[in-house]
Amino acid sequence: MSSYTQVMVEKGLVTVEDIDTAERVREDQGLRLDQALIQNGALSEQDFLKVMGERLDFEIVDLPNATIEDEAIRSLPSRFVYRNHLAPIARENGTLKVATSDPFDLYVFDEIKLLTGLEVTPVLAPRNEIDKVIKDHYGVGGDTVEEMTGDDDLALTSSEDDSQDLLQMAQEASVIKLVNEIILEAINERASDIHIEPFERTLSIRYRIDGVLQEAAVPPQINRFKSAIISRIKILSNMNIAERRLPQDGRIKFSVGSRQVDVR
């Protein structure tokens, strides 16, 4: 039994039987023991983080009530943040405070130091709270949009009148991924409607949640790809991507886990 699991047993957070069961899950699914315990429901993530915070002398932060500084957000690129599930929350006197839900992945903080030239103070927070900070401050699909921004072919919007170019853009893997992320976010937020409205220079994305339209948190760079996004949705709905004047009806069916979702 590892030292941290021994501490959890001594604190009465888990039993030896819980650990034995989690060990079998760990071997079958290739998880760490703590991940298997949490997945089995034998241990809460919050209790795990408290134990690790005490052992590593890391602060546990309450992200929903924390002030997230814009300067901290600007310190790390969205692709890095999304890939590592981190939330930069404060920057002061050459030190960046970064929240993680994985106290075992400490090498990532060396990467941050090399990337930013700043000292790093790690703190701990539940993964769902970190994910919310990322979505609120970097936007839904922020990492995908950043990848698209570096793609010169996708960045071209001067060919909006060429249906063949639009078709090609709409079938790019990054566009497909971004549209999927927009729809999945709506499902996760239990939205009844998604309003995607292209204007001359901007793209408005809103979700209707509990009867109220709410602006989706999306990165501003998404405006550059509004034609590709709209075309992708038309393709999914079996609509004519060349038709921009007359209204069209379409339908999308797809699966999310075991759920069948019908979008009209």
CATH topology of the largest domain: Beta-Lactamase
Instruction: Report the β-strand fraction as a percent range.
Output: 15-25%
| DSSP, total strands | 9
Distance between the termini: 53 Å
What kind of sheet is the major sheet?
4 strands, mixed
Question: What is the radius of gyration computed over CA atoms, rounded to a whole number of angstroms?
Answer: 22 Å
Q: Average pLDDT value?
A: 86
The spatial strand order of the largest sheet comes to 1-4-3-2
How many discrete structural domains? 3
Report low-confidence residues grouped into runs of 5 or more: 154-161
Oligomer: single chain
The CATH class of the largest domain: Alpha Beta
What is the global morphology? globular
Q: Provide a count of the helices.
A: 13
Q: Give the fraction of residues assigned to helices.
A: 40-55%
* Structure class: alpha/beta
CATH structural architecture of the largest domain:
2-Layer Sandwich
Order of helices and strands: HHHHEHHEEHEHHHHHEEEHEE
